[in-house]
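Weekend entry, working from home. Most of the wet-lab plans are on hold until the incubator is repaired, so I used the time to fold the two sequences that have been sitting in the queue since the last round of cloning. Logging both here for the record. First:
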Amino acid sequence: MSLYDEGHTIAGWTGVGIATVGGSAAGWGVCVVSAPLIIGGLAVVAVSALVTWVLHLSGWGKPPGVRPRGEWGMRTRDTRAREGHTGCVSCRLAGRGRRSGVPEAVPAGSRPLSPVE
């Protein structure tokens, strides 16, 4: 198992799935020279970004950086999403989050997972 939290979340994988469908539709539209198919595929890709954003804000994403190992599970909901994440562009766009200069509380007993931190 990796020593790094790779961010496999419901929000991430849902967004990737929807974007894959949209990208495939747009690509097929290019192959068959169909402007409506290209536009429709690109619209689905845009929807995937919005779906991912909404899922992230509802707690099914992850904050930037490494989470504690106990929170690595894909079905683990992020309880801090409502307040926003430090340095998170999605949270800042939604009007949430702390400025990156304000430190975030670290759970007791957590330690760096790699020497890079």
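Second, folded right after the first finished:
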Amino acid sequence: MSQVPNITLNNGVAMPQLGFGVWQVPDHEAAKAVGTALEAGYRSIDTAAIYGNEKGTGKGLASSGIDREELFVTTKLWNASSRTWTRDSVLREFDGSLDKLGLDYIDLYLIHWPRPMTDDYLTIWRAFEEIAKSGRAKAVGVSNFQPAHLRRLLDETSVVPAVNQIELHPRLQQSAPRAFHAEHGIATEAWSPLGQGKGLLDVPTIIAIAQKHGRTPAQVVLRWHVQTGNIVIPKSVTPSRIKENFDIFGFELDGEDVAALTALDSGDRLGPDPDEYDF
């Protein structure tokens, strides 16, 4: 039995608050990494078309022996500028992801980036609404959408995104998007929750809190995410770290810890600006 709490999405679907991400995991390593994560207790796996590892991820899921109903699988549409996005092209991409994963349905399907300069995310989203209605995706959402992008979806379409997956960590706490999400029933999911190994886990404040609780800096940051209410998807291919990142439910940060972590917010991004990123 998994000890991970669920977040109930706005359509009633239950999503584990802690999942395992496979960004930058090569396809030939994905099956092993996913298998290790599932053995550690994870039941939510996050991939994407652009990661190039949906096949390996699917092999890891299939070989686990875990009932499909116990798993929560997320993948994402890579809405690149090289394509003219129509209903039919979106549906073809979705079918391709299903085929690579070897699944009959996906639990959560996301638009990877808004790319507002091309103004096609409304067309894409309407196809997502159709996918959700068909039941082949239990929930649909977005990734890297700013409040202005979400507002257009709310004003001009009929399905509220279940999730917005955004860059979020103690140095980029995203208070404005999180407030918008909370107001409109959109769950916040954090990518790069540990800061991509670019110094966040070496911050003295985080190290001190980790020592106080007899935990690692990574466990402290992941615990902060969970207590903040974020869905979080750390990634690793190292078995010991995969297990370490899962072991965050045996302690709790106190108010002083949370205040110290909140004070680390500098607004610095590691990834692209969603208003400007095109590909």
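Plan for Monday: verify the second prediction. Residues 87-101 form the longest helix (15 residues).
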